[in-house]
Write a structure and sequence with these properties.
It is a single chain. This protein has 102 residues and is an alpha+beta fold. The protein has one domain (2-98): Sandwich (Immunoglobulin-like). It is 19% helix and 39% strand. It has 2 helices and 7 strands. The chain has helices at 2-16, 54-57; strands at 22-28, 33-37, 42-47, 50-53, 69-75, 82-87, 94-98. The longest helix is centred in the N-terminal third of the chain and has 15 residues, at 2-16.
């Protein structure tokens, strides 16, 4: 069911012309807050499951040879935080993490 909802969201964004490339982000358990974490700021992207455009995840992304990377921070009450480094040139279409209970 979750996969179906994620795919429906992706198709909706693409059909609406709102995004060029989208990434599906999920967690086990669902309901984790996902932050885009940099040295200077932490911005909430949404709550899993979610679909995000590359532009929202990496606003400093450029069409050049620079490899931009960010850290996604997953937080859910009762679970350990989990960080995941994501690189622009290795950006998968789906990102999923499993959170461990505290």
């Amino acid at each position: 069911m979750t996969r179906f909802l994620l795919m429906a969201c992706c198709c909706g964004l693409l059909l609406a012309g709102c995004a060029g490339r989208v990434i599906s982000i999920s967690s086990i358990p669902a309901g984790a807050q996902v932050y885009r974490h940099t040295d200077f700021a932490r911005n909430l992207l949404g709550t899993t499951p979610l679909v995000s455009s590359v532009e929202a995840m990496m606003p400093e992304w450029r069409d050049d040879s620079s490899d931009t990377s960010i850290i996604l921070l997953f937080k859910k009450q009762g679970y350990q935080d989990k960080s995941l480094r994501v690189r622009e040139f290795e950006l998968p279409p789906e990102i999923s993490v499993t959170l461990e209970p505290r």
